[in-house]
């Protein structure tokens, strides 16, 4: 088949024939979001991963998310369109950084889900951007080690009032969110003065402070319904902007054009079709790390359950 003529419907048919369920992150291109059985933020993907009945999964996102699906589905085949799609932030945190922080402070370590499997295996708890504040506020301790994202760590510190120590510190950030400058946002705001600003917590504190809403990608989906505005500036990866436009056709969304995660964009229609038709690019995880990583993720699920009971 000529790869350029492959349509989203061709992939859907092929996935059905081969018995694959398709899971995608919100930053995927619209055509890939279209073929997915579920599209969500990291938390929704993890929760959904515990409920999959079919034996084969095609995942559209980056490596740490695919690994998480595999950890929660050890006996299922998980494949991806491009094995080189990674999250560079995950690599900023090393085993040595975590061990030396644990040596220095007697405090639990919370791993942001955008991390390696080794980081999760060393963590007391895992969290995502959607539940980081809830997870940390539910913990008994007042001092918490948190990594790798220093900006999310600062958001959690502000919201919980706890002593959050970022590990590895200044070097832990997402290049897509951290490089956005407040001036860029102010320039967009000048063009659309009545637009509200919504931002992901991976952005700098100064942008967060000028934002009307800060939340995970899926929390951003709900905000336009409650907010008293028809216009929004979306300070996160541009894939999310298309999703918001489709979800809220009566409202206007303005993107920050520089916010492109090149790794998320490595996945394409052609590569997805090839991966399913040849059933290749399987995800494997280090068996020695799976147990520890899974425990830290399950503690997150336990905490979330007790949180919803208390609420
Ligand atoms: P969400 O969990 O909010 O979708 O974020 C994932 C991510 O990679 C942000 O850059
Ligand atoms: Fe990682 Fe940033 Fe891409 Fe999210 S947007 S996957 S944090 S590099």
Describe this structure in words.
The structure is a single chain. The chain has helices at residues 8-18, 30-35, 42-49, 63-72, 95-104, 117-122, 132-138, 150-160, 175-178, 182-191, 205-210, 217-226, 239-247, 269-278, 287-310; strands spanning 20-25, 38-40, 56-60, 77-79, 109-112, 125-127, 143-147, 163-166, 196-199, 213-214, 231-235, 252-255. It is an alpha/beta fold. The protein folds into three domains: 3-85 and 264-280, Rossmann fold, CATH 3.40.50.10800; 90-174 and 289-310, Rossmann fold (3-Layer(aba) Sandwich), CATH 3.40.50; 180-255, 3-Layer(aba) Sandwich (Rossmann fold). The strands form three sheets. Strands 2-1-3-4 form a four-stranded parallel beta sheet, with helices on both faces. A four-stranded parallel beta sheet has the order 6-5-7-8, with helices on both faces. Helix 3 (42-49) packs parallel to helix 4 and helix 7 (132-138) crosses helix 8. The radius of gyration is 19 Å and the shape is globular. The chain starts with 7 loop residues before the first helix and ends with a helix. 1,3-dihydroxyacetonephosphate binds next to loops.
């Amino acid at each position: 088949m000529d790869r350029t003529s492959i349509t989203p419907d061709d992939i859907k048919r092929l996935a059905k024939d081969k018995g694959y369920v398709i899971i995608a992150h919100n930053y995927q291109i619209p055509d890939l979001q279209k073929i997915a059985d579920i599209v969500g933020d990291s938390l929704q993907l993890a929760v959904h991963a515990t409920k999959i009945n079919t034996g084969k999964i095609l995942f559209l996102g980056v490596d740490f998310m695919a690994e998480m699906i595999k950890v929660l589905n050890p006996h299922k085949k998980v494949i991806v369109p491009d094995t080189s799609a990674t999250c560079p932030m995950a690599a900023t945190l090393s085993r040595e950084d975590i061990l030396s922080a644990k040596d220095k402070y007697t405090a639990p370590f919370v791993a942001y889900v955008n991390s390696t499997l080794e980081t999760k295996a060393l963590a007391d708890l895992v969290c995502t951007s959607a539940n980081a504040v809830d997870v940390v506020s539910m913990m008994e301790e007042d001092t918490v080690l948190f990594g790798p994202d220093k900006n999310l760590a600062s958001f959690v510190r502000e919201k919980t009032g706890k002593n959050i120590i970022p590990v590895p510190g200044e070097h832990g950030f997402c290049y897509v969110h951290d490089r956005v400058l407040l001036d860029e946002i102010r320039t967009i705001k000048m063009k659309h003065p009545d637009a509200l600003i919504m931002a992901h917590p991976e952005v700098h504190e100064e942008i967060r402070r000028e934002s009307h809403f800060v939340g995970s990608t899926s929390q951003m989906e709900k905000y336009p319904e409650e907010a008293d505005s028809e216009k929004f500036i979306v300070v996160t990866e541009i894939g999310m902007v298309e999703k918001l436009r489709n979800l809220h056709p009566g409202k206007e969304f303005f993107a920050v054009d520089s916010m492109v995660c090149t790794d998320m964009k490595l996945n394409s229609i052609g590569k997805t079709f090839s991966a399913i038709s040849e059933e290749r690019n399987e995800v494997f995880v280090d068996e020695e790390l799976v147990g520890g990583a899974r425990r830290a993720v399950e503690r997150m699920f336990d905490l979330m359950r007790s949180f919803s009971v208390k609420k």
